[in-house]
Amino acid sequence: AGPSAEELLAALDPEQQAVARTLLGPVAILAGAGTGKTRAITHRIAYGVATGTYSPNHVLALTFTTRAAGELRSRLRALGAGTVQARTFHSAAMAQLSYFWPDTVGGHAPRLVDKKGRVIAHAADTVGLHVDTPVLRDLAAEVEWRKVQMLTLEEYEAAAADRTMPRDTSPRRVVDLMRSYEQLKDDRRQLDFEDVLLATLGMVESEPRVASYVRQQYRFFVVDEYQDVSPVQHALLRAWLGGRDDVCVVGDASQTIYSFAGASSGFLLGFGSEFPRGSVVRLERNYRSTREVVHAANTLMRGRPGALDLVAQSTAPGPEPTVLACVHDGDEAQTVARTITDLVAGGSAWGDVAVLFRVGAQSAALESALGRAGVPYRVQGGTRFFDRPEVKLAVHHMRGEAVRQTDDELTRRVGLVLQVSGWTPTPPEGTGAVREQWEALQAIMGLAEDAPAGTTMQQFTQDLVDRAATHHEPELDAVTLATLHSSKGLEWPHVVITGAAEGLLPISHATTDAEVDEERRLFYVGLTRARRSVTVTWSRQGSVRGGTRTPSRFLAALDTRSADGAAASGA
Ligand code: ATP
Ligand code: MG
C-alpha cells in the first residue's frame, strides 16, 4: 500500500497534477531540467493505478538505460505501483522476441552476439579491410548507426557522403563490411542489440497474432527522456501502440546528447503534430537547483532551438557558480580533491558530491588525486581508469620488455614505452575510439609528468598497479565520478565540472555548429545536476608541455566568482 490518490496529487504542482489526471490519450511534457518530469510521470502512473484506471500489468514505462529503468522502478515501488513494468526499450523488445520466436519462427530465439568487436573484426578480414582495433570500434559504431536509422545498405551508402568515415575506409568499403557482418551473424544464428529492436518491430508489424497479444498486454505507455528516442525505437513504440494513442512522453530538447548515436529531439518536438488530439504541457518551475544554478543554465541555453526557460522554485539564495583556473591537469585534479575535502569538512557527505567530465580518460588524473587525498569514489557506469584494458596493457609494457634501467627522465621513458602501446605525441586524426584510446595513454603521460622528480619507472608503475588493485569494493558513501553523458537524470547537492577548456568542452572534434551545440547541451546537463553548488574547473595547460588552453566558451554563461584554482583552494 502506497500513498492514496489524494496524497499522490498533493505531492505535485498544478501543472504536474494536470498531467497526472490526464490518464488517457496522448500527453507530452516538454520541460527543462529539474522541473519534475520524472516525478510527474511516476506519480501519474501511481495515480492511474490508485484510482483503478490502470491495471498495473497493462502499463509499460520505458526509458533508455538500465540505470534509469531501475530508478523508475524504485520510484514506482515507493509510490505503491511496484508491479508496473519499467524497462529499457531493449529489454522490453528482448522479452517479446524470446517469447514469440518459438511460435512464429520456430526453435529458440537466437542468442545475442557475445563479442561484437570480434565479429566486426572477422567481417573486416573477410572483405580485406585491414585496420587497427580503434578503427574497428569506429566501424562498429557506424554499423550501429545505420541500423538505428533503419537504413538499407543502399540508403546508407547514399547518406554516407555526408558522414565522416572511419580512418582508412570509404563508404563502399564500409558497406562491404556491413554486408559481411550481417552474413556472419546470420550464419552463427546471432543477433546484435539493434537486431533485437528491428526483429521485434518486424514481428509486431508482420504477425497479427503477435501484434494483438502485445497490444492486449500493454495499453498505456509512458516514456521518460524522450528526447533520446531513435528512429527504430520510435517505430517500435508506434507498432506497440498500433493506432491507439494512450502514450505519455516527457523530455527536454536541451538535453539531447545522443544525436551521434541516432537520437533526435525531433520526435519530442513533433509530438503535437504526430498526435493532434494530444495535450502538450510545459513545466517551468525548477525544483532541483538554486536560483544561481538556474540562472546559469538559462543563460547558457538562451536562444538555442528547443530551449525552455527555467524558473527557480527556491528563493533561498545559494552560492554563485565558482570557476577555478588551474595550472595543469594534475593541479586541477588536486584542486578538485581539495574542493571536495573542504565540502566534507563543512558538513557534506562524500555521496553529496559528483565530479563530471567530458571523456572517460579524464578520470585518470582525478582518480589518482582522489586516491592520494583519501577521498572514497566510485565511477558511474564505467570502468575505473586503471581497470581499462588499454591502460593495463600499457602498464604491462612499462613493466616488461621495453624498459631499461637508464637514468633517463621518467616522462621520456614513459613516452617511449607508450609508443609501443600506440601513443603518439600529437593526437590522432579522427574521433571516437581511436581518440579515446589515445587519450587514455595521454592520461598516463600526464600522471608521469606529475610524478615527483626522481620517481623511478619501477615506483611509478608500482603505483599504477596499486591503484588498480585498491577500491574494488563499491563504497556506500562515496563521491561519484561520471561522464557528463552518464549523469543525465541524476542530481547531487554539489557538482564539480572539470575540464572546462576549449578542446575538452567543447571537445576538439566538435567542429560544426551542430556538434558544438551538442557540447553546449552536455554542459547544460552537467550544470543542471546540481541542487546547490556548482564548481567548474579548467587548466591552462594539459600535461604535455607546450599545449596551452583557453577557457571554454561556455563559461561566458556563468555569472561567477572567478578565482585562481590553486589560490582559492589554499595551496
Ligand atoms: P531531468 O530533466 O534532469 O531528468 P526532471 O524534470 O525529471 O529532471 P525530477 O528528477 O523529476 O526532474 O525532479 C527534480 C527534483 O525536484 C527531484 O528531487 C524532485 O523530487 C523534485 N520535485 C519535482 N517536482 C516537485 C514538486 N512538485 N514538489 C517538490 N519537489 C519536486
Ligand atoms: Mg528526469
Automatic annotation (TrEMBL):
Domain UvrD-like helicase C-terminal: 291-532
Assigned keywords, A-Z: ATP-binding, Helicase, Hydrolase, Isomerase, Nucleotide-binding
GO molecular function: 3'-5' DNA helicase activity; ATP binding; DNA binding; hydrolase activity
Leading EC class: isomerase
GO biological process terms on file: recombinational repair
Record: residues binding ATP: A31, G32, A33, G34, T35, G36, K37, T38
InterPro entries xrefs: DExx_box_DNA_helicase_dom_sf, DNA_helicase_UvrD-like_C, DNA_helicase_UvrD/REP, P-loop_NTPase, UvrD-like_ATP-bd
Positions of the UvrD-like helicase ATP-binding domain: 10-290
Entry's EC annotation: 5.6.2.4
One cellular-component annotation, GO: cytosol
Source organism, top-level taxon: Bacteria
Catalytic reaction(s) noted: Couples ATP hydrolysis with the unwinding of duplex DNA by translocating in the 3'-5' direction; ATP + H2O = ADP + phosphate + H(+)
PANTHER family: ATP-DEPENDENT DNA HELICASE UVRD2 (PTHR11070:SF69), UVRD / RECB / PCRA DNA HELICASE FAMILY MEMBER (PTHR11070)
Entry's family note: Belongs to the helicase family. UvrD subfamily.
Name of the protein: DNA 3'-5' helicase
Upper taxonomic lineage: Bacteria, Bacillati, Actinomycetota, Actinomycetes, Micrococcales
